Amino acid sequence: MCEVKEELKMKEHRPDLCSRYIKIFIVVSCYWIVSIATVFVNKTLLSSQSVALEAPLFITWFQCVVSFTICYSLSKSGGIPKVFTFPSGTPWNIEVVRKVVPLSVMFTLMIATNNLCLKYVGVPFYYVGRSLTTVFNVVFSYILLGQTTSYRCILCCGFIIFGFYLGVDQESLLGSFSLIGTIYGVIGSLMLSLYSIFTKKVLPSVNQEVWLLSYYNNAYSIFLFPPLIMLNGELSALRNYNNFDSTYFWFQMVIGGICGFAIGYFTSLQIKVTSPLTHNISGTAKACTQTVIATQWYNESKNTLWWTSNVIVLASSALYARFKQVEMEENSRKPIPEEKQSLV
């Protein structure tokens, strides 16, 4: 009798497990598709002759406008029924502005330098060009938070730096190296690291709601970008541009903005249905696939050492994520000393 009950339970459990795996597969696939598509769409907007607009920060600003419009609409409607609920909140509250704007400055500089990097470097090199985020995370976590890092994680950072150097060296030998693009990539990595660290401090101000923070960041970036656009000398390019009346141009711009919003949604969704570690591994594998696709798409031939640099960076980043996950699990199992326990 007990065996029959166990068999029935197993049969009931299998469809649930199967549906869960199908859901994870769909979410991860959507993340890969949207993430890779976003990089290629942005590269087209920033560098292709079909757009031919030398105003990368204006393009980035417009994407923030599209993301803000979507977030504003979802905030008013409460989200998408049976898909997800969008938290209520307004970015125009003085207290919220005071607490979130410093982070929004980092957010603005981060996406600006990322797109400037993508404008000047090829898509195959884009991941390596922005690969120092992990290294900056370790440095700033120690300087700003006083958090130490294990020797094996530091060793992974050493390999990432070596892979980055090797990639730069091989790009130079192949004649496709862009110094300004690589500098923007390093600055983008630095800003992403700072943004990640300070996000933890700002999230309590928005009730731990990642969507609200994204909504507010895009709202404030709309006002933070115009001075950067002027400093980058893009006003003359905008005045002399002849395709503002082109439906195809605005279609590309809107698609770029939707992709920017979608990647944030699928990133959060992937973390939700899997785990932060799985997300990191998925992102690493996606970067590898993106590099292979890009070399085929743009008909670029790379030598063995160039591919070796990519493998070193990808493997070191994945190992770092795994080591940090193991350390977090070990720390969570350690008993808290009685004198440090909360009275609650």
Automatic annotation (TrEMBL):
Domain Sugar phosphate transporter: 23-290
TM helices/strands, residue ranges: 21-41, 53-75, 96-113, 125-144, 151-168, 174-198, 210-229, 249-267
GO cellular component assignments: membrane
Keyword terms, alphabetized: Membrane, Transmembrane, Transmembrane helix
Compartmental location: Membrane
Topology of the protein relative to the lipid bilayer: Multi-pass membrane protein
Protein name in UniProt: Sugar phosphate transporter domain-containing protein
Organism: Manduca sexta (Tobacco hawkmoth)
